Amino acid sequence: MSSHLSGDWIPGATNTSNGPIGVLDDSSAAAASGRVEALRKGLRDLGHIEGQNVKIEWRFGDGKEAALSPLATELVELKADVLVSSTGAGLAALRRATKTIPIVAAGADAETRDVNPQNLARPSGNITGVISVEGETDGKRMELLREAAPTAARIATFWDCNGRNIAGCRTWAGGTTRSQRWGFTFIPARVWTPDDFEDAFAASIKEGARALSLSNTALFYTHRQRLATLAVKNRLAWVAGDREYAEAGCLMSFGPNGKDLIRRAATYVDRILRGAKPADLPIEQPTAFELVVNMKTAMALRMTIPKTMLARADEVIR
What we know:
The chain is α/β, with parallel strands linked by helices. It has two domains: 3-133 and 257-280, Rossmann fold (3-Layer(aba) Sandwich), CATH 3.40.50.2300; 135-255 and 290-317, Rossmann fold, CATH 3.40.50. The protein is 38% helix and 20% strand. It contains twelve helices and 13 strands. It has helices spanning 33-45, 68-77, 88-97, 138-148, 166-182, 197-206, 218-222, 224-233, 243-248, 258-273, 295-300, 307-312, and strands spanning 3-6, 21-25, 56-60, 82-85, 103-109, 127-132, 154-160, 185-191, 211-212, 237-240, 252-255, 290-294, 315-317. The strands form two sheets. It has a seven-stranded mixed β-sheet with strand order 8-7-9-10-11-12-13, sandwiched between helices. Strands 1-3-2-4-5-6 form a six-stranded mixed β-sheet. The longest helix has 17 residues, at 166-182. The chain is globular. The two termini are 36 Å apart.
């Protein structure tokens, strides 16, 4: 069942707006806790304090993309002043639910039909904020995998069969092209629920997989800790896109700092609450990317991470 979380609302408190801020996340409340706190802090720093002068309606898909559309509709029916999502699937669901309420992307991996990359300076429609495009960093992750695990020629990659998962499709296609460049062979396995994970790992190992590459979908993000544990158990080196995966136990991650993007997106929410229109707020893309290496996982995999890579890392988890 999809989960709901409303901020403690104090009747009669002064509001900066007439309606609530609606936030949609495709993960569970527990899995998205870091993103929740990043947005709360970003808003709090700008004077929007939940339970005092602003109400925030939180909705979580619990890793099930099919739950997002009704949750998005629910937020629209609450007459939210602004809607926010940190995920591509959540952003797409909000886009389908309304063409009038302002929508702020908070580091979401945007589809081209959600945000026109050619029109970032003057966005059309009701969407603005901070976007990332996961496929743009696929090549770098393949480089890092080759550097860390030079003998890993075959890579397990699980196909999340839930919903549309356009971001996953793009990552899959881009990864296939880059695999030819770097000499990798992808071993696909289809998954629908966490119950499929162990069979997917077993099938991949049987086919000779030595590494793991996954797109960032609701299913995988929600269950990232379990996936990281299974990757270590099956001795697969996993390079992910978000640092939350490395913190959960995968070998390393490379991508923008998602929490920083969310805090930056809070400034968009602030400006919209103060009267700005989405079309007047240029869409931003990340310019800084970070490498996080989990040495605990490297030791568990009995891998030696090159000193040059450790020297380049923005953070080493020990």
